[in-house]
Design a protein that fits this description.
The chain is α+β, with helices and mostly antiparallel strands. The protein is built from 13 helices and 23 strands. It folds into 2 domains: 297 residues, Pnp Oxidase, Chain A, CATH 2.30.110; 148 residues, UbiD C-terminal domain-like (3-Layer(aba) Sandwich), CATH 3.40.1670.10.
Length: 472
Amino acid sequence: MPYRDLREFLSAVDRIGELRTVGGADWNLEIGTISELMYERQGPALVFDDIEGYPHGYRVLTNAMDSLRRTLLALDLPLDLDVKSALDAYQERMHGYRPTPPVEVSRGPVLENVFRGREINLWKFPTPKWHELDGGRYIGTGCVVIMRDPDTGQVNFGTYRVMIQDETSLGLYITPNHTGAIIERKYWAKGEVCPVAVAFGEEPILFAGASPFLGQKLGMGKYDLVGYVRGEPVEVIREEVTGLPIPATAEIVVAGTIASPAVEARDEGPFGEWTGYYASGTRPEPVIHVEALYHRNDPIILGMPPVRHARTPSHFALPTQERNQQDRLQRAGLEDVLDVCRLAVPGITVVQIKQRYPGHAMRVGLAASGEYMGRFVVVVDEDINPRDPYDVLWAIGTRCDPATTLTILNHCPSSALDPRIPPDRKKAGDLTSSRAIIDACKPYEWSVDFPKTNTASQDLRAKVLERWASLF
C-alpha cells in the first residue's frame, strides 16, 4: 500500500516504534549534531519541532530511512526480512518492471499556501546549518530537483545540494557529469534559462527515486519508476511558472529558473558532503531564482545530512545499489558474479566471483571500476565474504601479489567532491583520478595447487550447527 505523502509514512514509522519527536532544538548545528549522533547509534527517525525562532509545526525530519525496518516500510516489504532476503525480494519486484506514468491532478495539499514574487521568503523555514564548517544553511539535502530535457522532453529529477542565498534565491551544486547538470547546459547552449522545480519534503520513495537507490537505468523515467515501485502512479500538478510536474502531496516546492553561470553565479559551499569531507570548497555556482513558492500548512523539511562512514550515500539500510551493480555486471555477460559489496562509501567495492577461466577476475574488476568516485575494486573468490572487511583484508594479504595482480587505471572520471584531487587540478577543471584493481583471488592457473585453508568445510559446519544448535 503506497504512502500518499511524507506524513502517512511518518505515522507508519511511529506505529512500529521508530519515531521520536525532539522539541526546542536550534537550527544552528544542534539539529545536525543530534541527527549525526542518533545515526551512529542506529536510533529512531527524528522529527524536530518548536525549533528556536520558528513557529510550532514548522518541522525538520531526519534519519528517515536509516534502519532496515524503516527502509522495508518505505518499500512496502515485510518488516521481518533480513538484508539478503530483502534484496532478493526487491530484485524480484524489479524484474517485472513496467513504466507506471504519473497522473496529473488539479489540486493537492502542496497548494495550501501559494506565494509569488515579493511574497516569497525562503527564510521562513527552519533550515538547519548541518555541520560546523558549512558555508550556509542547506534546505536541500533530501530534496528532489525536477527538470525537463529540452531535447527529449523527458522529465528527470535528482538529489543535489541546495543552499539558501537570500529570500528568493538558492545556490545549486550539481556534479558536472550528473543528468541535472547536462540538462542545464543544454538550455544554456541555446541561450535560455533552465526551468526548475525543487521539492523539499516528499514521501521517501520519491527521494529514493532521485538517487541511484532504486536502480534506474538510462532512459528510465523517474516518475514512471517510482510509480511502479510504490504500486500506484504518483499524483503530480503542472506547476504554472515552469510547466514542470511537481508532487501534489509534497511539503514544500519552489519553482523558478537557473541562468547560465556566465550570466550569474554566486559563492556556494563549503558543505560537509557524503564523502565525509569538505572537498569542493567555496566556488561560484548557478543560482535558482525562485518565482513561486508552495507549501503545506505546518510544512516538514526532509533532511538527509551526509555523515562520515555512511553505509550508503543516502544512508539507506538496504544496499540495493550493490545488488543493482551485481545485476549490471551479470547483464554485461560477466559470468558467476556472486555478490557485490561497497565496503567503504565512497572508495572501495568488493566483488565476489566463482572463477571460470584465466583473466576472469581482471575482466570483472575492469567492469566494476566505473563506480562513481570509486578508488579500489577488490575481486575475491567464492570462499571470501565480501561483506566482512577482515575476510577481504586476509584475502588481499595472502592472495594478492602487488607486482602482478594490482592494476592502476589513470584519468578516470571523478568529482569536485573528491578529497584526493589536488586543489590546482580542481581549479583547472581536471576532475579525474586513478583507480586500482586488486585481484585478491587465487591464481586461476594453479588454483588447484594453492594451499588449502584451515576452515571447516561447509558440510561439517552444517552438521555441527545442527547437532549443537542450542549452543548457537
